[in-house]
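Please, does this match?
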Amino acid sequence: MLNAAIRNIPLPPRLARRPVSERGFPVPWFCSFRDGKWDFVNLDPRKIGIAYNQQLCWLCGEKLGQYKAFCIGPMCSINRVASEPAQHLECSRYAVAACPFLARPNAKRNDAATVAPGNIVGIHLAHNPGACLIWVTKSYRPMRVDDGVLFQLGDPVELSWWAEGRKATRAEIDAAMAKGLPHLRRVAAMDGSEAMHELEQQITHAEKLLPVEAAPG
């Protein structure tokens, strides 16, 4: 039986075929299995390559179609980079409604996560941005970074911003962007003026993709 917190959220058929944890949450395909229990915090790093090479959904583990969805944070919308492989759109929509970190702005990342070789890499901000973006594209490609891989996203065919399990307002999107931009600018500044210039160009381009207004609902 599903946990009471998510029981009223429609469960996509593909995710309905996944195991359910002892706490009543569908187990994402990327989870590892440790000491006889599903580990929601530490992913199975082997599945990153499997998901990309076999074109499988990161959340349900089933075959993807021509459209690939990515649930990303505001800063990832600027550099068009994702730290996880693609998902089905319906799986992404369920995630933004049911995942505690994505659906609750005050939720924090679990400090128990470990980063093993081949695990998720890149720059991760500790704060919860308060809003996230589902980026749908037809293409993406891996990029080798340090000891792991990130994914460069192709041009979007559909974009939707979410907050608290619903469509985000423009004010919520702007606030989420404002949270991360100072950090992004500090990182670019350490790489010099050319990196700063490139970042500002990326920000300008990303702002053109923002909705004029997105009302809750």
